[in-house]
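lol forgot to send this yesterday, sorry. struct tokens for the thing we talked abt
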């Protein structure tokens, strides 16, 4: 299956101030996340984001939060590791659940991203995880989580795969602008 721009949404998970600097290669991860946000915003695909217990872990990191707010992304707070139990009780549930496909990015791959992916898959969603836009403190935890997700039918794809699946055609009016994100 390919990612379909007319039937998908993006969910950014827990990119917060107290944890994010401890993630492996945080600058590269931040750049990848910003690129994903740019793609989904440009293509007018809904963007949602979570914050895990912000009182303890802080808010979303500044540069990403600024983009999310300017893009009018939908925010929710949670205490569960999976976004799904909390998200199913937020004001934006209906819009989110209309998306057959959910694209996940954020941290930590082996905890919140994994549990969210598994819950969404269990509820019948097609789940895609963007490899460059997920992270953990330890690379081995990310690698194990990616293997586990793949073994459970979750699609782990690259940024470039996602981009070209969403665009589908070089005649897409956003092709030239968004293709410039690939370096």
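and heres what i got for the seq, position by position
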């Amino acid at each position: 299956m390919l990612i379909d721009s007319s039937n998908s949404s993006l969910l950014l998970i827990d990119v917060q101030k107290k944890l994010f600097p401890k993630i492996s290669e945080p600058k590269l991860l931040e750049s990848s996340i910003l690129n994903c946000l740019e793609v989904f915003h440009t293509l007018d695909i809904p963007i949602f984001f979570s914050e895990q217990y912000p009182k303890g872990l802080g808010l979303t990191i500044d540069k990403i939060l600024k983009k999310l707010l300017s893009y009018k992304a939908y925010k929710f707070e949670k205490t569960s590791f999976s976004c799904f139990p909390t998200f199913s009780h937020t004001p934006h549930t209906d819009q989110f659940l209309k998306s057959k496909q959910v694209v996940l990015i954020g941290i930590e791959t082996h905890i919140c991203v994994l549990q969210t992916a598994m819950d969404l898959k269990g509820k019948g969603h097609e789940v895609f995880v963007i490899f460059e836009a997920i992270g953990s403190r330890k690379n081995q935890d990310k690698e194990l989580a990616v293997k586990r997700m793949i073994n459970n039918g979750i699609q782990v794809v690259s940024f470039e795969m996602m981009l070209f699946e969403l665009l589908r055609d070089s005649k897409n009016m956003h092709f030239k602008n968004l293709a410039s994100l690939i370096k």
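The chain has a mean pLDDT of 93. anyway ping me if u want another try
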